[in-house]
Design brief:
Order of helices and strands: HHEHEHEEHEEHHEHHE
Structural class: alpha/beta
Helix content: 25-40%
Number of helices: 9
Number of strands: 8
Strand content: 15-25%
Oligomer: single chain
Radius of gyration: 18 Å
Length: about 250
Amino acid sequence: MAQESYTPGHTANATEFMARRSLECHGDFFIRHLRPGVTVLDCGCGPGSITLGIARRVAPSQVTGIDLGKSQIERAAREAAEQGISNVQFLEASCYSLPFADEAFDCVFSHALFEHLSEPRRAVAECWRVLRPGGRVGVCSPDWGGFIVAPPSPELASAIEAYVGLQTANGGDVGVGRKLGAYLSAAGFQEIRMQARYECYGDRLFIGEYLARQLEQNDHVRHANVLRSWAESPHGLFAQCWVSAAGRK
């Protein structure tokens, strides 16, 4: 496997950033496939906020969330216990080697994972393996080619490019969104449907700090300061383009 590292890390800031996501906001493209009686695997579940939404939709069927981050799995399990959601389990595992038998699930879902993978085709092949015939897969990732960040400036553009370079050096692909449909097709999935939407961050201080911390930890202090300064602008905008692809086995 090629060198690969999860760029956001598992800091408190990054975890809180992921925990703000919900099935309704970030997994809407796949909701029509979720109903009671459907078993679901969530690959790269993070702190589990989307996974718990899935569990509510398909109860009493079982939902399984996997993630490489032990701290994420622990937090997700705590949240499930606190919310009284019993039809979900969280396991520490890799999307490249899923610890499940062939044809174990009716649906496989993955949000904000593929942009960090050096071998996305290998991950899609695992999704195919654990899906039952007729099962549905749904994947979603941002595509940085569609980002809108305002007000524009050469300094801000340079800071964004520095973050892109960081994620690329870590083995990720910031332009993977537009490739998701092709990856599913190559693996054998049919009835592929791609969609795109924008997420506009109302809390620019939060997204600015999220990006700045990753840069700062990798010695891009000047770029980190540019992002923090931009986040304080009274008329700023950070609009992230999300691309999803869903298909049937």
